[in-house]
Amino acid sequence: MNRELREFRRLERVCLEQAALSTMDLARSGLLKVADDCRLAAEAIEAQPVPRSAIAVAVQAFRLALTSGRTPSRH
Prior knowledge:
Elements: H1 2-21, H2 25-47, H3 54-66
């Protein structure tokens, strides 16, 4: 579990750093959305009392990230 948590936090940090460096609005927006999803996944992992298995935790984290109430914007 700690490995998955560290990886989500690392991906969040990388996306935020790259978003800060991005000169294109679309790229920056996409990177910020991925960073937000990684943050949500990490928070879901942290909220787990005792993980059943690494795969189960990752699946639940992604499920929570995808159902966080954010609706995709279509232009």
